[in-house]
Amino acid sequence: KRMAEELNTFGAYLRQMIKERGMKQYVFYTAVGITKPYFYDILSGKVNPPPPEIQYKMLEALAADEHMRRTFLNLAAQGRDEVPADIAAKIKANPKKLDAVRELLGI
User: What span, in angstroms and rounded, lies between the C-alpha atoms of 103 and 77?
Assistant: First the structure.
């Protein structure tokens, strides 16, 4: 397993993803369009993971594969105490499926 798979906080996982891609941190946060202080607050966990729009910019900048994408979105959701952004978007786009989701989850 890659080391990043073992990391369990959003900031630690993001840091490792950037490192694995061989990207300089300033290149990353500039590409995403966030400030240096905000970026370092995210890495350190001083602030919650960013909102979904920024999460998707980060994934694009990292050219994340599906496994990385899922882990990233799951950790971001955990840090924000929300449903993962990709799942929330699908539910929002398919409101008629809410009963099926409830049934699947047994609620």
Answer: 22
3-class SS string, the chain: CCHHHHCCCHHHHHHHHHHHCCCCHHHHHHHHCCCHHHHHHHHHCCCCCCCHHHHHHHHHHHCCCHHHHHHHHHHHHHHHCCCCHHHHHHHHHCHHHHHHHHHHHCC
Q: Are 7 and 16 in contact (CB under 8 A)?
A: yes
Q: Is 29 exposed, middle or buried (0-12, 13-18, 19+ CB in 10 A)?
A: buried
Residue matched to tokens 């998707």: 56
Token pair 């995210």 is at which residue? Answer: 42
Q: Span 44-65, mean pLDDT?
A: 96
Lowest mean pLDDT among 6-10, 17-21, 46-50: 6-10
